[in-house]
Each structure stands twice: as C-alpha cells, then as structure tokens.
Amino acid sequence: MAESEAESELKATVGGKPGALRLSRKQSSLLVQAGGKKTEVPLSQVVWAEANEGNVLVSALVRKGNLALVNWHCECDAAAAKPWVEELMRAAYGDVKPRRRLKIIINPVGGPGRGRQIWEKRAKPVFDAAHAELDVTFTERQGHAGDIAESLPLDFDAVVTVSGDGLLHEVLNGFAKRPDARKAMQIPVAPLPTGSGNGFALSLIGLKDGLDPAAAALNVIKGQPMDLDLCSFTQAGKTYYSFMSQSMGLMADVDLGTEHLRWMGNARFMYGFLRGLVSLKECPVELSIKVSDTDKKKMVDTHRALRSKRVASASRPDLTDTNVEDLEDSSLPELRFADGPDHEWITFEKPVLYVYAGKMPYVSVDLLQFPVSHANDGLIDLVVQERTQRGDLVKAIGVAPKGGQYWIDSQHYFKVHAYRAKPLGPGYLSVDGEAYPWEEFQVEAHAGLATTLSMLGHYAVDF
C-alpha cells in the first residue's frame, strides 16, 4: 500500500480547537487531535462518521476504564470532508454492513434488576450513534421472548437479548418451534449482558470487556456471523435446544439454589458454591457418554490449532451477502442417537459431585469452566467432578477464572458427541440457567445449527 493510501489527514477545528483527524490504515487507527490533546482510537471502535458540507461528526468508543461513547464535532473544508468521511467509514466497517436492523428483546428486571437502566444509559446511545435501526420489545412474562422469536419476521440482521443467558435460551427454542426453524436460526443472536452470569457475552468478548454493555453493543454493530453449535436436550419425548450448558449436582444447586439471591449479581454463585462445599453431597446419577476424546493435553493442542486456523480464516461472510430464504431444507436435524447408548458408549463409574456440560468457555466471570470449547467444533465439553476432598475444591476457586481447575486429576474432562443422564435420587437440573425436571434425559451436539456475531471469528479466551 502506498503511503498516500495508508494515511489520510483532514485538517479541522475539533471541538472549537485547531486540530486534525488522521486515518491510518497501516495502524488500523484514527488519531484525533484537538489543540494539544491527542486521542487514538482503533478503527474497530469507530461506529460512525458523516459530513454535512464543512461539518463533520465522528463517533467512536474510547477506553476510559470501560468503553465510553465519544462524539467529535469538527469544522473543515467542505470539499475535503465528504471523501475523507467515506474513506473512514469504509476503513472502519470493511465488509460489515453499517446501520444494521436489529430486534432488541429486553428483560427489564434481568439479573440484579437493572436491565432497562443499563439499556438506556450504556447500550442504546451506542446503537443510536451507529444509526442502527432498532425494534425494541420489553418482556412482560417468562416465555415472552420465545413467543416473539416464534413469529418474528426473518428480515432482521440480528436478534439481541438484553438480559442474562436465560433470555437467549427462550429465543432459540422459540425459533425451534417454527416450521422454518433452520432458516430462523440463521439470523444471528447476540447477548447484551445485564444478568447474573453472562457467560455468552464473556465468551464472545472476553473477560476484560465481557460485562461491558457498550463493548457488547460494538460486537453487535461490527461482529460478523459465526456458526454456533447447539445441543438438543431430549426428555420425556420432547426436544429442546441448549446453547450454553447443562448442570447437575453441586453446580446446578449453585445456580438454581440461589435464584432468590439474584440481587447479589454474580456473587450469588460463589456463595452457592461455598455452601455446597459444606455438605459435599453426592450427585445421584448414572452417566453414559459417547466419547470423542479424554486426553487433556491433546485437547489443549487441538484447541490451539483450531484457534490459529480460525484467526486466519476469521468468520463467514456478513449476513448481507446471504439470504435466509435460499436455505432449501428448513427442518431441524434428526437426532443421531435417539436409540440411546450402545456398546460404543462408556459409563462413568465413580461417585460424582457434579456433572457440567457446555458449549462455551465461560459460565461466569469467576469460572472458565470449559477452556478448550469451541463455538462450532460439533462436540460437547463434558466435565465430571468426582467426589474429592474439600481442600482440592477450595484450591480450585483461586484458579477457576483462568481455567486452572481443568488440570485437577479428580476433574474428568471429555469431548463428547452425546451423553445420557439417569437420576438415581433427588437433585437439581439446570439447562442454560433454567430449571428443568430432574428426570432422565439425553443431550447431543448439532454442528453450526445456530448463528451468533463475533469480531474475532472465535471465542475470546486464551488458555
């Protein structure tokens, strides 16, 4: 690239002070100079630029602890303004379509009960600055988001849930009830975190910014579609779909047994875990597994190789280049293991403290439970914690945010195609944070059945 193409400067008065706007494709950044103050912003964080004769507006998210929206109002030569702004927008968005049309579904009392406030103060201004077209609905009851998804027109660029992880569970199962279910699941779904756990947002955006609504809004604005595996969950002849996790024993009690403490936010999970350590109650379950891999070191090596491959290839083309109506077969996939376990399955024989299965790395800010999981490898990550001494589990608390418990000998980690659980006594069962009957069930993975948005093309976790 020639130097003239790599950098482009627009002399301007910025906020009433003499300065300049300098676009650097080489550095992938925008430098804003106003008087003696200079602010450099990655192009990925520039959400809008427009020129009205000699007046230029540039909007971007600037790091001030969390990401904060900043609008620069500039005055410059009218003839130079329009082509420079057009060049900036091309550099900032690349192949991504600006001004996305978004269906926003908000749980106004999600998590600690501040869903509406967080949306209005931290997220909506970012979408407005990016000139997104918003269709907003506040949920009024449990199951409302599923009803919306079941009848939603398929002309949105994405569906955004402003809540914890439970609302997304409703949306995907609403899609699954449609006669055109597979077409509906091609519409990307993305989280805007206002709940207690927010595992999906943490997994997509990373530990640093995963709880920041502005960063999540940026992911919706700039992210490209990424295939997302789902798990079919079959119980009593009915099939549901899980996008995040299923848990039994201690970890289900941590989630469902602290529902009355939602006002505590994420801290309720730590309280529930410490409470469970007092009793160390065994999880009464018969567990059958269709195994793909059990070698922890090999799984880490595979994880890193897949991660490198996906960094190179990024994600699939933007939704604007596809048409969901062109999908020939809109039915959901048949269950491959509907007949249940056979001779190729194994049974876990040791006493179990908890069973935790998942499709994304983080389940909360304090727990990187599935550090080698991938969005679209077609496998479920299954953790079986055998009953062990309290001291081992207490030590695991300190390393859990970085996934250190993965290496504990008593924590068995499997990559699986499917598994079946048969309760042998009373207990809890949580699916994507929602309570399900503690009855026999089977789960299997379905590769790339749904779609999300990602600015990276892979989960934001280093392990």
From TrEMBL:
GO terms for biological process: sphingosine biosynthetic process. One of its GO terms (molecular function) is phosphotransferase activity, alcohol group as acceptor. GO terms for cellular component: cytoplasm; membrane. It comes from the Eukaryota. InterPro entries: ATP-NAD_kinase_N, Diacylglycerol_kinase_cat_dom, Lipid_Phosphate_FormReg, NAD/diacylglycerol_kinase_sf. Pfam families: DAGK_cat. Residues 97-237 form the DAGKc domain. This is DAGKc domain-containing protein. It comes from Exidia glandulosa HHB12029.
